Amino acid sequence: MTSAFRTRIIRTLTVPLDADSFPGGLPSFLVRDDLLCWTRREAGLVGFGEVARFTATGPERFLEADIWWRHLVIEADVTDAVGCPGTGPVAFGSFAFSKVSAHSSRLIVPEIVVGLRDGTAWLTQLTFDDGELTEAGARAALRRWLDTPHTAQHLPASDAPFEAPAAAPSAARGTTSLEQPAAGREAKLSTGSLSEADWMAAVAEGVAEIRTGALEKLVLARDIVATVPDGVNAAEILRQLAVRYRECWTYGVDGLVGSTPEMLIQVEGRTAQARVLAGTLDRRDAEGKAGTPLEFAERVLAGSEKQRHEHDIAIQSLTTQLAPFSEAMNAHSEPFILELPNVWHLASDVKAELAEVEGHVPTCLALINALHPTAAVCGTPTSVAGALIRKLEHLDRGPYAGPVGWLDAAGNGEWGIALRGAVIEGPDTVRLYAGCGVVEGSVPEAELAETWAKFRPMLESLGISS
Predict the structure, then answer these.
(1) What is the pLDDT of residues 300-330, one digit of tens each?
(2) How far apart are alpha carbons 68 and 55 in whole angstroms?
(3) Has residue 182 got a pLDDT over 50?
(4) What is the dihedral of CA 259, 39, 59, 398, to 10 degrees?
(5) Which of 114, 386, 438, 457 has the most C-beta neighbours closer than 10 Å?
(6) Distance between CA 309 and CA 313 in Å, rounded?
(7) How many whole angstroms separate alpha carbon 348 and alpha carbon 361?
(8) Measuring CA to CA, which residue among 50, 245, 31, 9 is closest to residue 154?
């Protein structure tokens, strides 16, 4: 375990911003490759810089991070003129999927945060320095982060009222227009840890294990590597994802980028919510089929015993683990069809009122420690599925399928599962990940096709046809 924690007190200033000054929403601020990002429907948080960092590995990584964060903020000097979830002290985080992974889980405290929620916008500056925090100073600090060679030509004059840079694509509410990725990239895709044939053999072996009764469900992931000769632009990837997949949560933390449709846990006050997905259908499969595309999805997904069984396992996994922390809970009696640009999913939303445990409401990270990994990304029973994943995948997932999101000092936070994503490994190299739920009725060829449908958001954001 390592940290950049200092004994000095962290100080924060949060001031209102005029949301009308950046009508494109937070995608307007996605202009630096080193930023921190969590956005959905043009709202969320974008962070710049870094004043503190915590890292850990192993099975206690969530609890260790929770202790570090609570220690950091307990005596924080907070001036907050906005007072909503995401204001004041904030950290972005990404955690390894596996307790045995060598990948470092992390919390990062940025220097500057821009937030937008329900039409309310704000700017937060965070520091350990002793100097006075002022609104003018916070705005100047934000401008320094934006005023780089990459964006300087798009910024207003330094003495003008703050406006968002105009370099980002159009992302006005309800629209889907955006600049296309650079054409003509001669990107190369190469095999990751397993070839397609070897991965399908792993799926078949997983099905065989399920038929012995050792487990009910197994989630197997695979990776591919994209090499982009003219360079990888993280900001462009995030802009593309934020606009194309605005119903998902677009995330960027330390080179981990993606747009997940699955919310592991969202906490606001004493209310916790989750969105569970299991059951997937490629939208291209509806071409030429009778009825509307949505009717086709309902027939194939909601009408499939295999897909419903997989979904029921995922719901039961989450609600069983969340129940000890809740005094009331409700979930959809029937899953709904979630429409995304690339796929349809069977989805269910779960809502719980949190109970006090040992005198206090559990924190986001304490809940994550209990919930992760769910059946949606691992399988069930978890211990059996996890061991089989390590045997069959030949892959350290790193942060893929791990929790990613943010938390504040008041206990609020949003943590998705890092799906539909990739890790930027070098200036021109990106490793993409996708996985599938395997049950007794799974067919390896169909599962392989599903991974390609799930790779599509990242491939498109890189300008690679799929």
Answers:
(1) 888 888 888 888 888 888 899 999 999 999 8
(2) 10
(3) no
(4) 40
(5) 457
(6) 6
(7) 24
(8) 31
- Angle (nearest 5°) at CA 281 between 185 and 219: 90
Rounded Cα–Cα distance for residues 31 and 152 (Å): 10
Beta strands in 232-354 (DSSP E): 249-253, 256-260, 263-268, 271-282, 326-331, 336-339, 343-354
Bridge partner residues of 266 (DSSP): 273, 414
Tokens of residue 370, six digits: 């209990």
Hey, CA dihedral for 317, 322, 327, 333, is it positive or negative? Answer: negative
Cβ density class 297-320: b for 16+ within 10 Å, e for less: bbebbbebebbbbbbbbbbbbbbe
Q: Is pLDDT above 60 for 291? A: yes
Whether domain 188-461 has CATH 3.60.120.10: yes
How far from 125 is each of 77, 218, 260, CA to CA, in Å?
12, 44, 28
The continuous run of DSSP H or E covering 47 comes out as strand 43-48
CA 280 to chain centroid, in Å, comes to 18
Cα-based distances in Å from 356 to 118, 327, 363: 28, 9, 10
Which residue in the block uniquely carries the two structure tokens 């009331």?
328
- The domains of the chain are located at 2-154, 188-461
Phi/psi for 263 (5° steps) reads -95, 115
pTM, two decimals, is: 0.89
What does the alpha-carbon distance between residue 111 and residue 321 come to, in Å, rounded to a whole number? 35
Q: How far is CA 30 from CA 89, 150, 235, 345, in A?
A: 21, 11, 5, 28
Chain-centre distance for alpha carbon 242: 12
* Cβ 222 vs Cβ 454: under 8 Å: no
Amino acid at 412: N
Q: Which residues contact 395 (CB under 8 A, 6 or more apart)?
A: 192, 193, 194, 221, 222, 223
Mean pLDDT of the chain: 88
